[in-house]
Amino acid sequence: KMGGRMGAYAYTSLVQSFANEGQLGRSMELVEEMRGNGIQANVITYGVVVNAAVRAGLLRQARGVMDAMKDVSPNATMYNMLLRAHAEKQDPDLQAAFELLHDMHLARVQPSAVTYNTLMAACVRMGDLAGAVHLFQRMAE
């Protein structure tokens, strides 16, 4: 528990420090502490935790952070971080990547060109040219 009154910026800096050191649990404890102190976590606060989890290869944990967001909703950048991690693995997990695209639509988060380009590249790598063409057509809509 941190002493004194800290604002969202100070908390986010501390959350990022712990996340960068691989202490994701401590980062999320700080997010909960923010809430307990009446300070709203923002998309940047959550984004640093998701980014650190993705960089560490902890994709389930990254998704768990996104699912646990209470104060704000995940944005396209957060979805793209996780989507890219699934799509660019040595053995891409296209199913997980496409599930994220579906979840973006359900959450009314607009996929970006980065979203579609990442998925198209993964389809091409896996030899699914029809899937890449389909994504291209969806992107053009």
Determine the N-to-C terminus distance.
49 Å
- Total helices: the number is 8
Write down the oligomeric state.
single chain
What is the beta-strand fraction? under 5%
> Which structural class fits the helix and strand makeup?
mainly alpha
Which term fits the overall shape?
Answer: elongated
Q: What does the average pLDDT come to?
A: 89
Please count the beta strands (DSSP E, at least 2 residues each): 0
Flag low-confidence runs. Answer: none
Instruction: Summarize the biggest pleated sheet.
Output: none
Based on CA atoms alone, the radius of gyration comes out at: 17 Å
Give me some keywords for this one.
141 residues, mainly alpha, 8 helices
Q: How is this structure best summarized?
A:
70% of the residues lie in helices and 0% in strands. It is mostly helical and 141 residues long. Helix 1 (8-20) runs parallel beside helix 3 (43-55) and helix 3 (43-55) packs antiparallel against helix 4 (59-68).
